[in-house]
Design brief:
Layout: H1 3-17, E1 20-21, H2 22-29, H3 33-45, E2 49-52, E3 55-58, H4 66-69, H5 74-85, E4 93-96, H6 100-107, E5 116-119, H7 122-127, E6 135-138, E7 142-144, E8 149-151, H8 153-159, E9 166-169, E10 173-175, E11 179-182, H9 185-196, E12 201-204, E13 216-219, E14 226-230, H10 235-242, E15 247-251
Parallel strand pairs: 4-5, 4-9, 5-6, 9-12, 12-14, 14-15
Antiparallel strand pairs: 1-3, 2-3, 7-8, 10-11, 11-13
Helix pairs in contact: 2-3, 5-6
Length: 252
């Protein structure tokens, strides 16, 4: 079998089964495990899968910058944003992640909601400049321009001085076995700290990120208290997460 055919077989198997195992593939295709591992390395470099011990998993869609993400899954993000906004209760202190889905969330906040919103995203904070009753706390630090959020020691120190009722989280991938993940190491550290400082974590995620993984681990999937997804997400994608005890809410 040609290399191109082998790689296509790997991708087809990954799509059908949700994972591939190098040893099994080598037996199926009659080649060495070293050959399969080389194929997996090349496919991972191309961004179409994420290597894990012994095999590979589906990779989260290529992570473009914030401007690019604003053009992706816009209707789905608006649905999730409205559902998330409805969860905030008066006088709560909430952490809000940076990102395009959380931007939809703050745009959907009722004009008379009185609460405290803490964010490390200047973009999220700026969206609420004219909100009449929302108190906004902006976490400072080094600006990570790709995602429009602050990272680093100063941000971590500020986060650890606050205890929030809830954290509205964004990720690039959630997988029942491999947890919550994202594409940047420092972002993963910030998100982990926010989870630790919140009484509960709510994850809003589009269907293309469910069952996917990215290089940097944030926490286990069970760090999420509630998962907000749209009805376009296939049950086979979210059922393994529901089986972990995560409350899954289908939004429309």
């Amino acid at each position: 079998m040609l290399t191109k055919q082998r790689k296509q077989h790997i991708l087809n198997t990954l799509q059908q089964q949700g994972n591939v195992v190098a040893k099994v593939l080598s037996q199926e295709l009659g080649v060495s495990e070293d050959t399969i591992r080389r194929d997996l390395r090349e496919l991972a470099k191309a961004g179409v899968l994420q290597r894990v011990h012994g095999g590979a998993l589906p990779a989260s869609p290529a992570v473009v910058n914030l401007t690019g993400r604003q053009q992706l899954s816009t209707d789905e993000k608006a649905v999730l944003g409205r559902a998330a906004a409805a969860l905030i209760e008066p006088d709560q202190v909430v952490f809000v992640d940076g990102g395009t889905t959380t931007l939809q969330m703050v745009r959907a906040l009722p004009a008379d909601l009185r609460a405290t919103l803490v964010t490390h995203s200047p973009i999220i904070a700026a969206e609420l400049v004219n909100h009449p009753t929302m108190q906004v706390v902006l976490i400072g630090g080094q600006l990570f321009k790709h995602s429009g959020v602050t990272v680093g020691a100063a941000a971590l120190a500020a986060i650890r001085s606050i205890r929030a009722d809830s954290y509205f989280l964004g990720v690039t991938g959630i997988h029942a076995d491999y947890g919550l993940s994202t594409g940047d190491l420092e972002e993963a550290q910030i998100k982990r700290a926010l989870i630790e400082q919140a009484a509960e974590t709510v994850l809003m995620v589009t269907a293309d990120k469910v069952g996917k993984v990215s290089p940097y681990v944030i926490a286990s999937a069970t760090a999420v208290s509630q998962l907000l997804i749209t009805r376009s997400t296939a049950p086979a994608q979210y059922q393994p997460l529901a089986d972990l005890g995560i409350a899954v809410s289908l939004c429309d």
